[in-house]
């Protein structure tokens, strides 16, 4: 089974586009590269207070209403790409994970070595439709909740909604979109939106009309060359426009500074976002904890 809809961006670029990018656009320049600032907030990870902790790239540890959520964990290198900064914490530093949320199957979000470190804790997995086929290869007894777009899962005082994204999923040559992709809304005392990977599209307005969002975790990296990447990722300006359409109170940038997935320098997304409205944008260092 393959999932397809109006937000399926796998149909918007071809093999010819990939060759065009790699032959005529791609640059391997490393001149502007530097490491993200990494901070040690491990003492705050043991706090009972609610918090958001950015673990670099698109990985987050969130504590909300007494529950601990880990989203898209990647602790090391991924196939074809090495990290430019170390993971701020070891798995043991993160505490007991209650819920593991995975947005889609691309390697920089669905990382098997990292999942193998987490799954022995027996968290409940909240995942898109179709992803169970991949999880069962790692743990056939995993406790999973599978969600379609705008489906919900209730946890005591919390509600988790799976929401649309303009993107796609694949791990091999022949499994394009055999699982759904998307983002998450975690609703408790605070409401947190995790966008996953996404290009700019009408879904931000739709999500903003449906939900009241306190914190929007939005990707800002992997956007050059524009002719190719605009179908799959946000640049910082598009991410800020998405934030405005979401009508969220604060934006937390992510998906930058860890892997060089595209042609902009690894520092450019952060430099660009720093020039915008800093009162609304909360730029976290890798490992930094934001207490509510």
Notes on the structure:
- With 292 residues, this protein is α/β, with parallel strands linked by helices.
- It has one domain: 4-Layer Sandwich (Metallo-beta-lactamase, Chain A), CATH 3.60.15.
- It contains eight helices and 13 strands.
- A seven-stranded mixed sheet has the order 6-5-4-3-2-1-13, with no helix packed on it. The chain has a six-stranded mixed sheet with strand order 7-8-9-10-11-12, with helices on one face.
- Helix 5 runs parallel beside helix 7.
- The longest helix is centred in the first third of the chain and has 11 residues.
- The radius of gyration is 18 Å and the shape is globular.
- 43% of the residues are buried.
- The mean pLDDT is 93.
How do you describe this structure in short?
By secondary structure, the chain is α/β, with parallel strands linked by helices.
Could you tell me the CATH topology label. Answer: Metallo-beta-lactamase, Chain A
Distance between the termini: 41 Å
Q: Provide the CATH architecture.
A: 4-Layer Sandwich
Which percent band covers the strand fraction?
Answer: 15-25%
Counting structural domains, the number is 1
**Helical content (DSSP H or I, runs of 4+):** 10-25%
> Which class in CATH terms?
Alpha Beta
| Rg, Cα atoms, Å | 18 Å
Specify the overall morphology: globular
CATH H level, superfamily name: Ribonuclease Z/Hydroxyacylglutathione hydrolase-like
Count of separate DSSP helical elements? 8
Report mean pLDDT, rounded to a whole number. 93
For the report, how would you describe the main beta sheet?
7 strands, mixed
């Amino acid at each position: 089974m393959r999932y397809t809809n109006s937000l399926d961006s796998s149909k918007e670029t071809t093999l010819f586009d990939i060759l065009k990018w790699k032959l005529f656009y791609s640059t391997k320049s490393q001149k502007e590269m530097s490491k993200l600032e990494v901070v040690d907030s491990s003492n705050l990870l043991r706090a009972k207070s609610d918090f958001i902790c950015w673990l670099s790239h698109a990985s987050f540890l969130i504590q909300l209403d007494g529950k601990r959520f880990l989203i898209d964990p990647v602790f090391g290198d991924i196939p074809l790409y090495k990290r430019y900064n170390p993971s701020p914490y070891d798995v043991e530093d993160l505490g007991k994970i209650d819920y593991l949320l995975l947005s889609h199957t691309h390697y920089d979000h669905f990382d098997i070595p990292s999942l193998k470190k987490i799954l022995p804790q027996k968290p409940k997995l909240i995942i898109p439709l179709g992803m169970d086929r991949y999880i069962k290869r790692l743990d056939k007894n995993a406790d999973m909740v599978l969600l379609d777009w705008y489906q919900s899962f209730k946890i005591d005082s919390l509600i988790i909604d799976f929401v649309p994204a303009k993107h796609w999923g694949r791990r091999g040559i022949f499994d394009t979109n055999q699982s759904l992709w998307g983002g998450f809304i975690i609703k408790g005392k605070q409401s947190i939106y995790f966008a996953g990977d996404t290009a700019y599209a009408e879904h931000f307005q739709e999500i903003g009309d449906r939900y009241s969002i306190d914190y929007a975790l939005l990707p800002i990296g992997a956007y050059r060359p524009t002719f190719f990447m605009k179908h799959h990722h946000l640049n910082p300006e598009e991410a800020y426009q998405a934030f405005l359409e979401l009508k969220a109170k604060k934006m937390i940038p992510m998906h930058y500074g860890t892997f060089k997935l595209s042609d902009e320098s690894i520092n450019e997304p952060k430099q660009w976002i720093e020039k915008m409205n800093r009162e609304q944008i909360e730029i976290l260092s890798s490992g930094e904890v934001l207490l509510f």
